[in-house]
Design brief:
Layout lengths: L2 H16 L4 E2 H9 L6 H13 L3 E8 L2 E9 L1 H27 L11
Antiparallel strand pairs: 1-3, 2-3
Helix pairs in contact: 1-4, 2-3
Length: about 110
């Protein structure tokens, strides 16, 4: 998958995953990697930036499997950001689909990529 496509969608994916459940970093990497090929090193700088932007908060939990785990939780600002990104994503993806359909790249009934 194109790196620019991934980069643009990762923030939205992280916010959506954190909407109903807090996750630690590796858990987020693992879940996103089920559908999008990403490296661990890709996500951690984004998480740090999102925390700095106050879209995420963090806390530590003891682990029986090693050192404490840093958990990420979505904040109120993060929820607002997610809603905004989701609307932008829907508009963008619908626009791209229309262009592809108009130019016979996708048949009229197809959705998604």
């Amino acid at each position: 998958m194109n790196a620019q496509f991934k980069k643009g969608a990762l923030e939205l994916c992280v916010l959506v995953l954190l909407l109903h459940k807090d996750h630690y970093g590796y858990e987020l990497v693992r879940q996103i990697s089920e559908d999008i090929d990403i490296a661990r090193g890709t996500l951690y700088p984004l998480l740090k930036k999102m925390q700095k932007d106050q879209y995420l908060s963090t806390y530590f939990v003891s682990s029986t499997e090693g050192p404490q785990r840093k958990y990420y939780a979505i904040t109120y600002l993060g929820k607002e950001r997610m809603e905004s990104l989701l609307q932008e994503w829907m508009h963008f993806s619908e626009s791209v689909t229309r262009i592809l359909q108009k130019n016979c790249v996708l048949s009229k009934g197809e959705e998604g990529f």
